[in-house]
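Example record

One chain of 217 residues, shown exactly as stored in the release files.
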Amino acid sequence: EVRAARGPNWIAFDDPAGTLAGAPAGAPNADPWRLRGLRVEWNDTRVLFRIFPSRVDASPAAPRPVYDVYIDLNHVTGAGKIGLLDGRGVFAQARDAWEYALTVVGSNAHLYRASLDQEPDEIGAYKAELDAAAAEIRVEIPRETLRGDPALWGYLLLALAEDPAHLGRDPADILVGPDGARVLGLLAPLDVQHAVIDHPGVPHRVSAARLVSGPRL
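Predicted structure tokens for this chain:
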């Protein structure tokens, strides 16, 4: 299972041991897509997203990893959007429909707000800090943009690859493998990871990670 923990101003989710990942054609290995976890920290001025792949390159080569974080503010069925950003190939569970999506490619991060009847609205562009030594990616979002209590939100984290034939698009065009693979890593229990990664091309519904009864540290 995904392990959740929290403190007074942070929440963290760790993928289980033996977490899975795929590697797109042309990549030396799957480490950039093998997710270790997600940590969210906040104060009065910002919300900090910390994404932990198994490897981070300061200047990633094509095909570049794409990291999506979908944020469910309320855990209410019918509120938010179950379809993810274009081309992702999976859906959120109805109870985990998202209101905001943060997507990161290289040092560029973009925040989108869900629109039920239209394409998501881009509401901000931010710099992502790529920390190769710590194998960590950090993105700060102003608190005035993301209000509420992040400890109560649900988070769906995916690792995908940018299509090298269509670079620089926002949101990124996703590379589709010969077997239909799009999602190459995710924050989820191992059985869900196996279902998504071992059976590409199937439009799976994926649950968000959220704090239920995780320890307070």
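Notes: The chain has a mean pLDDT of 94.
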